[in-house]
Amino acid sequence: MGTIMHGDNNLDSNNSSTNIKETYSGKAAIVTGASRGIGRAIAIGLAKAGYNIAGVGRKVKSDNSGQGLIEMQCEIESQGVDFLPLQMDIADICRHKSVVADVINKFGRIDILVNNAGIAPAERKDVLETTVESYNTVMNVNLRGAFFLTQIVSNIMINHKEKCNDYCPKIIFITSISAKIPSTNRAEYCMSKAGLSMAAKLFADRLAGEGINVYEIRPGIIETDMTAGVKDKYDKMIAAGLIPQGRWGLPQDVAKVVNAIASGSLDYSAGGIIDVSGGMNIGRL
Ligand code: NAI
Question: Any idea which architecture 8-275 has in CATH?
């Protein structure tokens, strides 16, 4: 097998710790940011569909919020699949290689990568006052982290594909309606998601010929901890007609689309962008 590149680091797939196992007990998905919100719903949805889950998160055990990876273990394993909790800050790209090797060691394969982990700016500030610190923090997680993790996983998928015919891996990027619609009080978030949308397009183009489909899912306003601080504001905007379908999105709305992709229903739609925004994508005047 070839050598897997990650920036300046080589991940030699001949290394015994990263060899893809010859016997496959089941399909496996990596979900980043799996401990809560949209990522948690995606991980549970894929577990219900029979995927073993490697859940990446910042915390293995929560501080009593019930939102650590360990707390997910029972929920995932009650579906009759295995769960691998992986503590990693997605911004720490030096850790990617070993974390992906852990997934291969445990499951022998990666069928789906869901790039879900993401953060909003700690403080919403006008674009004229965006700080360098907030810009770097948001970009490093939302864009740089997801891009380089995808690079590593893509190379592993390509190697695996060469050895196995019955293998249709997929990569999914959870971007945002903010990839397209500006909010001047969180420029760094919008730019990170616009960049991630292009990353999805680039990988989709490069990997389609390899038999690896890449998709972008663009959620609108989803009820999670991320939006808890602006709930009142959005409640009012939704009541006033912001969302054509007239309600908040739920994490399960996004998870259902991931399951549709996983099922193969969108197999002739490489590079597809799926809006999950209750019609906000229509863009009314
Ligand atoms: P959330 O804040 O509830 O959950 C985010 C998850 O990502 C958590 O599990 C968190 O631990 C993990 N995470 C954050 N930074 C990380 C890091 N550096 N390394 C590893 N894991 C990290 O957010 P939510 O709402 O579930 O969002 C999930 C994704 O969906 C994000 O990418 C977000 O930008 C996107 N999104 C959310 C929308 C919403 O309205 N909630 C709308 C559009 C997109």
Answer: 3-Layer(aba) Sandwich (3.40)
